[in-house]
Specification:
about 170 residues; mainly beta; Immunoglobulin-like; seven-stranded antiparallel β-sheet; three-stranded antiparallel β-sheet
Length: about 170
Amino acid sequence: MNKMTKGAIATGIGVALLLGGGGTLAVWSDSVKSGAGTITAGNLDLESKLDGMWESDVTGPVGDINEYLVVPGETLTYTENLTAVVDGNGIEAELSMAGDPVNGFGDSVLTKTTFTKDGVKSDSETLSIKGKADVTAVTEFTFKAETSGRQSVMKKYSFGQVTYKLQQTAPTA
């Protein structure tokens, strides 16, 4: 058998298989674009409006906190104005103070944070936010008065970890 005959037989067998159910030679198809539209992700943002302000219950306003010498029993209050943006359908977030604000000095310094929004002070150390809100955060640092001898004399307290956190909460139906 010559090469031309072998090629013709192979071609014929291939065509027969395609037409006879060994495969399909052609199928119809069609497509259409959907009208599903476009979505945009929401936003969650927390910003400080200005540097915070310090005040002492003993001496009043504190200028440079890095130069201030605190005494046992004193309470220092840090006030900061924040803007919270919680933008999206059905989204809510919770504002709180995060981190270790007195850098590991344990129970010798007591802290308490409250938030005020629209003239209403929170009754817990967190605040629920929807939409955009101007919030005043007030954190009190009370230095325990129960000291003996020279305990805590010239100790340094770092407030570098004072951080406010805005965290999305789980959506509710």
